[in-house]
Design brief:
Length: 638
């Protein structure tokens, strides 16, 4: 019996070996026919919304109010004259103002409780855990840290944690009488928190961590405490309260024309924001008798939306320019020491230059940031340019930008980039394009209800040659292939069309034919086929334009788009590339034009969002831009 089992197993093992051998050969043949793209490196750069920030030991922690890239940006400002982007860390929820204790950074987040981050090495922050707290949706609206205690407010009321072990906060108190508390401040055993829609609660915490309410008072605005003194910023003034008697607090002083605190709140200095964006330094060594030391003027070319101060330096964020500035406060004028740019918001386009990347964002204005090429790791923006106001509503993504020689076309705007790190606006952008295509010396721009054709042979002059205008049209893409035609993607009245234009005479453009297709915003042409990935899950559509006057729908391949496309499609040899929302970059072999094969999906090596806002190809390199990362792949030979 044993011999029979053994021989039977030998036969099965021979079969298994044969099966794996054949399978391996098949995989090798498949791999050789569709060589994989090699991920060369990625550049991690600062981008976000700059919701709030904190400073510790010369490092600036900029928190973002969205989750598609880094929740935390860390800048090394130990040399104020040359701050550097040090690290970025993804997180959950929408981060808000945080606080430090030992080497842990506690960050409240809408939808995700409190993030605890180890900053023992500021250049390599480490996410430890989230305190979800069982709040509805996990929302945390307020956080305060003092005396080894962490105070947290939200839809679940007020909770207090003991921080004897900083990386493992221990809950010690809970005040459930209010369904939602949205602010908390504390000092020593004194505590003030504000339930939503009612007066603030003035309380103390005894040795057994019991919360004992003493009184309730109307205290709108922002609050801050030093010893037994409460500072209230409300109604354009600073109101100073004496909390010696928590049952009957009294007003000790008022300071008019004050908008808010700006950091450095004690123990003996307080920096305040005046009503006209001035900074005012106060002596608060006697907390209930603040005395103005001097007024500090802020530079006119820097619009400070958020700021904090530490050890005589002011750290400020300019939302308009997307910049972190570091200022010396020793004189009557805040003197800029150093500045670092970040890509404000989370969408944009990419241009690959000879020595630099140009990252572009358009929302009310166009912005160009120059990013030096680097190996794997972090990189700073080396220069910045922003100009040209334009309506921002109704356009889903960052407007188009294209390079032609030493110039960048940005809608009807033009930048000279002969000096890449110092772009010069030749023509301001007043109207932006959804798509720009350039062939030889002809440029076509999709501008809402019209396609504009310009001569780019004599830049910086780019005269208008003609236009194709259709009332009610919503042009999304324009192609200028080598066949002398122009092909446009037109979305109008809830339908999408491929339209063929005769542009033999750009001054008199003529519509030749049109074909209705599934919803799409981008297209590419190879030979006689136009490929259109869907904005939904309708797949990849093929249109035959071998007879330009009669474009014909060939077929739609359902499995080629799983979520939807929101970035441009590109052609490289016999492959096309397009971004599928949250999935990565789809790579499709079109060596047989009417029978495409989906061969690969590229996502880079990251825990971040796989939404690629732009894709570019230069030579044998593929560049994918996604929020806070730029991935670079090598395109294999066909």
């Amino acid at each position: 019996m044993r011999k029979f089992i053994s021989s039977t197993w030998d036969c099965r093992w021979d079969y298994i070996k044969f099966f794996f051998t054949v399978t391996t050969l098949v995989l090798i043949l498949v791999s050789s026919s569709a060589a994989s793209h090699s991920h060369l490196y990625d550049v991690h750069y600062p981008t976000g919304s700059g919701n709030s920030m904190a400073v510790r030991d010369g490092y600036v922690y900029l928190l973002n109010a969205w989750t598609r890239g880094d929740s935390i940006l860390v800048f090394d400002a130990t040399n104020p004259d040359d701050p550097r982007f040090a690290a970025g860390l993804p997180g959950r929820g929408y981060a808000r103002s945080g606080a430090f204790h030992d080497n842990v950074f506690y960050i409240p987040a809408i939808n995700w409780g409190v993030m605890t981050v180890d900053i023992s090495d500021p250049a390599e922050p480490l996410m430890l855990r989230n305190l979800f707290l069982n709040f509805p949706r996990g929302d945390v609206s307020g956080l305060h840290l003092t005396g080894g205690r962490l105070y947290v407010t939200g839809p679940g009321g007020l909770r207090i944690f003991d921080l004897s072990e900083p990386d493992a906060p221990m809950p010690v108190a809970y005040y459930p009488d209010t369904p939602y508390a949205n602010l908390v401040v504390a000092e020593g055993d004194r505590l003030i928190f504000r339930p939503r829609g009612s007066d603030a609660v003035l309380a103390v915490i005894d040795e057994e961590h019991r919360i004992i309410e003493y009184s309730r008072r109307s205290l709108p605005g922002n609050l801050h405490m030093i010893d037994n003194t409460l500072y209230q910023f409300a109604g354009g003034e600073l109101i100073v309260h004496d909390l010696s008697d928590m049952r009957e607090p009294s007003v000790a002083a008022r300071v008019e024309d004050i908008r808010a605190g700006a950091g450095m709140k004690g123990p003996d200095r307080m920096l305040l924001r005046g009503s006209e964006d001035t900074l005012e330094l106060y002596d608060v060594s006697t907390p209930q008798q603040p005395e103005k030391i001097r007024k500090v003027t802020f530079p006119e070319n820097f619009t400070a939306s958020r700021m904090t101060a530490s050890e005589g330096m002011l750290y400020a964020v300019d939302d308009v320019r997307g910049a972190l500035g570091i200022f010396d406060l020793s004189g009557d004028v805040a003197r800029l020491r150093g500045e670092r740019f970040f890509m404000f918001q989370n969408s944009g386009s990419l241009i690959v230059g000879d020595d630099n990347f140009f990252l572009y964002y358009a929302s009310g204005q166009f912005t160009v940031l120059t990013l030096l090429k680097e190996h794997n790791g972090t990189a700073d923006f080396s220069s910045y340019h922003a100009e040209g106001q334009t309506p921002a509503m109704g356009i889903r993504r960052g407007a188009a930008i294209e390079r032609h020689g030493d110039f960048l076309l940005t809608g009807d705007g033009l930048l000279n980039i002969s000096d890449a790190q110092n772009p010069e606006a030749v023509h301001p952008m007043r109207e932006r394009a959804e798509s720009i295509s350039i062939r030889d010396d002809l440029a076509a721009l999709a501008l809402d209800d019209r396609i504009v054709f310009r001569d780019v042979s004599r830049l910086p002059e780019f005269p208008l040659l003609g236009e194709y205008r259709v009332e009610g049209a919503d042009f999304q893409d324009v192609l200028l292939p080598e066949d002398g035609m122009a092909y446009v993607v037109n979305r109008s009245d809830g339908e999408t069309f491929i339209e063929t234009l005769d542009i033999a005479n750009p001054e008199s453009v003529r519509l030749l034919g049109r074909c209705e297709v599934p919803d799409a915003v981008t297209a590419v042409k190879r030979d006689d086929i136009i490929y259109l990935p869907s904005t939904g899950n309708a797949g990849l559509t093929l249109v035959d334009v071998s007879t330009p006057a009669e474009p014909r729908l060939v077929k739609t391949l359902d499995d080629f788009v799983s979520v939807g496309v929101d970035s441009r499609i590109h052609l490289a040899g016999e492959r096309i590339y397009y971004g599928d929302l949250m999935q990565g970059i789809r790579v499709v072999d079109i060596s047989d034009p009417t029978d495409p094969v989906l061969i690969e999906t590229l996502v880079g090596s990251t825990d971040y969002s796989a939404v690629y806002t732009d894709i570019r190809i230069l030579g044998d390199k593929l560049y994918g831009l996604r929020y806070s990362h730029l991935d670079v792949w090598e395109i294999p030979e066909p």
